[in-house]
Every structure is written in structure tokens, then in C-alpha cells.
Amino acid sequence: MMDWTDRHCRYFHRLLSRRALLYTEMVTTGALLHGDVPRHLDFDETEHPLALQLGGSEPDELAKCAKLGEQWGYDEINLNCGCPSERVQRGSFGACLMAEPKLVADGVKAMVDAVSIPVTVKHRIGIDRDESYEFVRDFVGTVAEAGCGVFIVHARNAWLKGLSPKENREVPPLRYETVHRLERDFPGLQFVINGGFGTTAEVQEQLRALDGVMVGREAYHNPWWLASWDEAFFGDAPFEGTRESVEAALVDYMARQRREHGTYWYAAARHMLGLRNGLPGARRWRQVWSDHRLKALDPHDVMALAHRQVALAA
Questions:
Q1: Does this UniProt record's set of keywords contain NAD (predicted)?
Q2: How far apart are CA 219 and CA 197, in angstroms?
Q3: Which of 107, 163, 208, 286 is most buried, most CB within 10 Å of its CB?
Q4: Any domain includes 2
């Protein structure tokens, strides 16, 4: 979810669900140790609960970055062992780390020793065309011994050569049973499943057997789904807001970001373009919020223009 789940996206998603655990986009250890730390780690307090996802492979660097994450107030540190992109592989992290479980375990132990917040791992069920259960079982077992108690499992293999990151989310088959088998074989660990979920019924089915479900792109493209999550999955009262009230709250945030940080409204608006999916006038509404020629306008004025287009389509 690099360049997707930035702080503006997370603020928007928190307007829809108070309870869902949010994850940052993957931040590399190099970016934190040699770059602009506030730019990568700053977030709004309303984003809690919030996990910082790290990309890296050197245990001492991971420990330093995990400590930074704890100092900045994150609730969890997550190590990415699932991203298959060639750019990430060149940095020797992401899915290729599954071939080196001892190195992952060393990194996890270094982070566990450095922080008091949970350290978790996100990974695939295999790499390339090796679909043996023993491969992922041994990976989990080795990393668990280092102190990781929660595994977020994308239920596909990662093909390190020959597929784009997009194809790696679609071509390798989903094998949910592999994750369920891990749950049965490691009863003392927690397993969260990821991959291909798009309805409340699908998520509820998985929750009957597993400890959690991670949803990525479907939540991004159809964000209004999140408004039902607190009731459906956490037993809270029904969401009381409307799409319009959520939009208005994000617009207030946009105006505040412009006033305090000089950030133009479209940095946040791009994340809410799916908010009116399926409603009359949604396309015209999106066109207004996607028009960078309007960037100098106050976001409240842009919202008024967008709603004018919705009214014309009614």
C-alpha cells in the first residue's frame, strides 16, 4: 500500500471506523535513518490504533527504527515480509526475506528487545512456485521463537520474478486453508488473514476460524464499507454519520492542513474518491475532486462545486 495509506488516507478511514487497526504504508529503515523522520512518522492522534510497517533486513537498523516508532507513539511495529516488487527485493527486504527465516527472526528479536509494544510480521504463504506447507510452517515457527506472536498472512505465494506487484495480487492462487492450518498447528499464536476479501459475509466467515482479517484495496476503493465495520465486527452501535458528513469532516481537515502546513486539499481528497461509489452523480463528484486546476480554492468551495454537480445529475 505504498503511496496509498499515508496519513491523510488514515485520517479519512478513521472517520469511518473507530475500531479498525490501521497500518502505515511500508516505510524503509533507510528512509528513517537517513531521511526526514517527521515526514514519515508524524500522524494525527485520532488515527490510533495505528501500526507502523517497516521494510528492512538488518537487525540493528530494524531495532533503531522500531524504537523511533515507539517514541512517536505507534501502537505496533510490523515487519513487511510480503512485498514482492523488484525494487524492494533490491533492498533485500519484503517477500524475499521468507527465504531467510533466521535473518527475519534476528530482526524480530532485535525489535522485541528494543520496544515494549507488539512486534508483528506480515508475510506470504510461500515464494515463487513452492506451495509446500512445510515452507511457511517452518518460517512461522522460526520467527515465533524470536518473540513474534501475531502473523498477518497474505494467502498467496509471492512470485519474485516474472510478475508485477499488481499481478502478484491476482495471479498466484489464494489458498486460505493454508492459513487455517497454521492456526491449528500454532494454537498459541494469532493469525490474521489477508487477500481477496470484499464483503462483510466473507470477513465474518474468516473470523469464525482466525483472529483477524486485513483488508487493503477493497477498503481503499470502497471506503463506505468501513462505516459498517464497528457494528459488524466489534459489536458497537451503528454508524451515525452519512457520506456527506464524512466528506465535510475531511474537508475541515483539508482546510486545517492547508492553514497549518501549506498542504493542498488534493493530497487528502484523492483518498476519498470512492466515497460515493454507486450513487447518482458520483462520476461528476469525482471529477470535481480530481481537478487540480481548482487546487488554489478553499476545499469548502470545492465541496460546494462537487455537490452542485451531484444536484445536476439528480
A1: no
A2: 9
A3: 107
A4: no
Structural domain including 283 reads: 243-313
Q: Is the pLDDT of residue 237 over 90?
A: yes
Binding site: residue ranges? 53, 122, 154, 194-196, 216-217
Kindly state whether residues 165 and 277 are assigned to the same domain. Answer: no
Question: How would DSSP label each residue in 135-180?
Answer: HHHHHHHHHHHTT--EEEEEEEEE-SSS--HHHHTTSSPP-HHHHH
Q: Is residue 1 part of a domain?
A: no
Which residue, of 213, 234, 255, is where some domain finishes? 234
The CA distance from 190 to 286, in Å, is: 39
Length of the chain: 314
Looking at residue 63, which CATH number applies to its domain? 3.20.20.70
Q: Which residues contact 264 (CB under 8 A, 6 or more apart)?
A: 258, 295
> Mind telling me the catalytic residues?
83
Could you tell me if 59 and 171 lie in one domain?
yes
- Binding-site residues for FMN, in ranges, read 53, 122, 154, 194-196, 216-217
Express each pLDDT in 238-265 by its tens digit: 999 999 999 999 999 999 999 999 999 9
Residue 175 above 70 pLDDT?
Answer: yes
Flag whether pLDDT at 91 surpasses 70. Answer: no
Instruction: Give residue-wise pLDDT tens across range 260-288.
Output: 999 999 999 999 999 999 999 999 999 99
Q: What predicted TM-score, i.e. pTM, was given to this entire model?
A: 0.94
Which pLDDT score, from 0 to 100, does residue 86 have? 61
Residue 219's DSSP bridge partners are none
Three-point CA angle 10, 218, 117, nearest 5°: 45
